[in-house]
Fold this sequence. Notes:
Strand order of the largest sheet: 2-1-6-5-7-8-9-10-11-15-14-13-12
Helix content: 25-40%
Mean pLDDT: 92
Number of helices: 10
Amino acid sequence: MRIPHYSKIHNRFKINGCHYNQRELKLVAYDFIKEGETFEEVIGVFLLDWLDGNESIEVQTSGSTGSPRRLLVSKQAMVNSAVRTAEYFGLQVGQRALHCLPVDYIAGKMMLVRAMVLGLDVHMIPPKMDLDWLDRDYDFCAMIPLQAKNALSKLDQIRTLLIGGAPISNSLRMALSVCGSSVFETYGMTETLTHIAVSKVTLPQNPFEVLPEVSIDADEEGCLIISAPHLSEESIHTQDLVQILDSSHFTLIGRVNNVVNSGGKKLFPEQLEKELGDLGYPFFFAGQTDTDLGQKLVLIIETKKDVRELVREELEKRLGEENQRYLKEIYTLKTFKYTPTGKIDRPSTLAILG
């Protein structure tokens, strides 16, 4: 596919079925800002930023791996990312896309960029957790897991669905694997302008496969290194521990800063969470400072009930004896802290415990 220039808006691009050229699109943006709903105001600001003639644009990280920060990224790199996505998923001019993500963050911005440069008809709805869209078919959509969970009965209206922003539970993974859509879990971040790898949603989980023109490696700690010249001149060093399977595939182990070193034993919370599966409540494993072990492994559950005894029974069934031995405490909290994109904010939640 020929790579369009960021300043070019495809002549088949539409919003909610209506075609707009650049001049008209600016008027739409002004109208969104002045008269639109809150989510439309953000869309309007982004459209004006995209059309302002500058080569770069500011984007904000979600804050899931540290304090939110603003990055200056190339508009052409965003276009390059959109084209690689189109090539991988076979997106065609004139197809209909459902947009249900907040444009405050990169995933929502990239849905609009894809529509503008690929000539898609993008239908925008409020980015709520319980989505409400017209009873019609769509060729392409991206959601976070909770949106997909709440929309399971309607997902067969979407041909290709991307899921990202947070882990997919085993129960949701099973439901998505038989929902009638082609559903893909994505791996990416703000620095990579959304996904650079995807995995067809199945149970058990498939490895991630990188998109065209992306190469991968791992550093001495086992953290993923991404080389994608069409996105960044420099390699992107992540904090994600991975197992490299071959030049195009990897499995995700967890965040290096989440690893718990308990008496010299390294425990990986994300792997333990997969083994434990679904508890019926949000939960996560973490490390707490311990005088004897350095760190002790703890389990934190979001619930107003005292379910610790029931959870211990599930631990005996689902976790190996060694992992159970390292788990020292089970805590319950009425409410977790979450990032704006719906991920559990592990450090802030853990801080509540003191």
